[in-house]
Amino acid sequence: MRSIGAIAHGSQIELRNRRIEEWVLTAIVQEASVLLAARRTLLRSRFPLSPPLPPPRPPCHRPAPDVKSEQALIIGRVVARALSKDKRTAILEAAAHWVAADGLAARSAKIAQAASVADGTVFKYFPTKDALLNALYVWLKQDLVDAVMAAFQARDDRPGRWEAVWSAYVDWGVAHADKRRALKQLRVSETITAESRNATLPAMTTMAGALFEGAGADPAHATSPDFTSAVFEALAEMTIDRIEADRGAHPAHRRRGFEAFWRAIGGA
């Protein structure tokens, strides 16, 4: 049987061994902590952390697009590309025919049918009836002016120019009966704007300046082109009416009409 002293000595040895184990374990933990800290420092030096992301930008509140305006712009471009010069001319020719026949009340459906287009196509080219009539007036007047100017430029003597202009005017009216009748109705219509009436004014002014220049007519009449123009149109229209009733004597009636006009303005 062990003595009390031996037991006490054994307990001391066991306690000392436990303390040694605790010290060794503590030392291992501390060493591991040091190694772990060193490893973290090494990793940070090799792989630095990315900078923090900037805060998100506030949303940009843009005004909503004007859908109707964009659609109108697109439609306008498509319509502009779709317009045809030939169709426009066909509509104007048909309008001249029906205005000559039915007056300014001519229906757009008849005009469209004569032009071989849909009724809605007429208003694609001319938004309103008034716009169509104004365009028709300018187109007819320009056609007449072109014919007269070509004859005017072919002569260089003043009496010859007057007769050339007269003959071109009369011949145009005889050759284009519908255009002439339509133009006569449009001239007295309040629908025709001042802008439309003045569309051919530059060319007419140039021609009138040359016709009234120099000798060969009464100076009193030469200074009043409005009077001369009124006499010219009145006698020319009477001459055309006479030719339409007696086409076989076209040249003779045209010549007699000019002689009457020339005497009326005091020509030599």
UniProtKB/TrEMBL annotation:
This is TetR/AcrR family transcriptional regulator. One of its GO terms (molecular function) is DNA binding. Residues 107-126 bind DNA. The keyword DNA-binding applies. Keywords: DNA-binding. Residues 85-144 form the HTH tetR-type domain.
